[in-house]
Amino acid sequence: MTIYLDHNATTPVDKRVADEIMHHFLEEYGNAGSRTHEHGQNAARVVNQARATIAATLDARDDEVIFTSGATEADNIALLGLGPEGQRTGRRHIVSTAIEHKAVLEPLQRLADSGFEVELIRLGVSGRVAAEDVLAAVRADTLLVSVMAANNETGVIQPLEQISEGLGGHDAYLHVDAAQTYGKKNEPLRDHRVDLISLSAHKVFGPKGVGALIARRRGYRRPPLTPLTVGGGQERGLRPGTLPVPLIAGFALAAELADKEHPERLAACQAYRDEVLAGLAPLSPLVHGDQDYCLPHVLNISLPGLDSEAVMVAWRGLIEVSNGSACTSASYEPSHVLAAMDVPEEQILGALRLSWSHLTPPADWADAVARVRALV
Ligand code: PLP
User: Fold this and answer.
1) Dihedral (C-alpha) 47, 50, 52, 58: value to the nearest 10 degrees?
2) What mean pLDDT comes out for the span 298-308?
3) 71-81 and 102-113 helices cross at what angle (nearest 10)?
């Protein structure tokens, strides 16, 4: 059996979640926008309940949850949606980091193309941005600070608490791409100074194709987001289109289960990490990123003298890993994340990302080591 070690790309859907989704596909299939009959009213109730469930996990209000197709869309609505406010007020300065996902970097590039000044803070081998560097870049005309909760390639957790605290009463909006930590490390996201949070269901045993943007109010004021698409007015006009009720119901159940089962999942992931490290130790892997701040289910390594492609071929049928984020692994670009961390080029070309879950069965590490040794 091949062991799937690419949970940062996506997770399987929890069976309980799949059952819930199927129920809403087959039995309660109403349109949440239909007010004239029971099927529609039931669907609206399911969406409201899901909104409340997700809001509760982040200490947000129900009306601060905007369902989207995933974290990519949430990032786009948050970042590009603030553009008109920046143009109107003349606050055209944005601070972010060089290790953000492309779902953040590309919208930021668009804003830069339309006259915004985007500063991407670099960082050292730790893979963790220094909160002081982020805060030192913030100016009176800074509209937005966008920092991911944890990096998808290295698993390194970013210092959100310090950034949030340092921003204090500054007007700048704080956006956090939490695709990799939602359901795994919710506490920093419950902080009310975090204005905008991007979430994805398929990284926490929910379905692909659904996520949310949390857009927190400051007092009565909502973040001044301009919608990117127009249509039926759903989600307070910020994300119009018929709501995918089955996916939303599944997302909410996945979020609830992640919250409830968090301690056991965490312990299982930590124990698995010890097995991975012990299993690979004979190959003396170089580990990327500060392990004191790494999510317990992620490990980014390179094996001295070996190219990642060769190792992945050698491990075929045994373990499945990735050599970068899923989105960039199709185009053989060296990782922009490891490059921003000043990891040497040959080490970047050898980088392998292993990511597991609380359910991952043990792998045959002795065979994995033997196959790599046969390469050299
Ligand atoms: N942001 C980060 C940090 C991610 O890891 C991912 C997924 O790889 C995304 C955004 C995109 O999420 P989605 O697939 O829900 O659009």
Assistant:
1) -140
2) 96
3) 20
Q: What is the pLDDT of residues 62-86, one digit of tens each?
A: 999 999 999 999 999 999 999 999 9
Token pair listed for 166: 């340092």
CATH number of the 3-11+261-373 domain: 3.90.1150.10
No. of H helices and E strands in the chain?
13, 12
Question: Averaged over 240-248, what is the pLDDT?
Answer: 98
Tell me the mean pLDDT in the region 126-150: 98
- Report CA(283)–ligand 1 centroid distance (Å): 31
- Write out residues with Cβ below 6 Å of ligand 1: 70-72, 101, 103, 148, 152, 177, 179-180, 200, 211, 325-326
- Identify whether the C-beta of residue 91 lies closer than 8 Å to the C-beta of residue 116: no
Segments making up each domain of the chain, as ranges: 3-11+261-373, 15-259
Q: Which residue has the tokens 């939303």?
A: 248
Closest atom of ligand 1 relative to the 151 alpha carbon: 3
Catalytic residue among 22, 267, 271, 327: 327
For residue 76, report the distance from its CA to the centre of ligand 1, in Å: 11
Q: Domain 15-259 belongs to what topology?
A: Aspartate Aminotransferase; domain 2 (3.40.640)
Token reading at 188:
């920093």
Mutate to test the pocket of ligand 1, among 72, 106, 295, 327 (most ligand atoms within 8 A of CB): 72
Does residue 294 carry a catalytic annotation?
no
Q: How far is CA 149 from CA 128, 267, 366, in A?
A: 10, 20, 34
Q: What number of CA atoms fall less than 13 Å from residue 137's CA on the CB side?
A: 21
* Residue located nearest, by CA, to atom 8 of ligand 1: 9
Rounded CA-CA distance 145/173 in Å is 6
Residue 118, both tokens: 């985007």
Adjacent-strand bridge partners of 273 = none
Average pLDDT over residues 220-246: 97
Please compute, for residue 289, the number of CA atoms within 13 A of its CA located in the half-sphere on the CB side. Answer: 30
Q: Which residues pair with 67 in a beta bridge?
A: 212
DSSP string, 241-274: S---HHHHHHHHHHHHHHHHTHHHHHHHHHHHHH
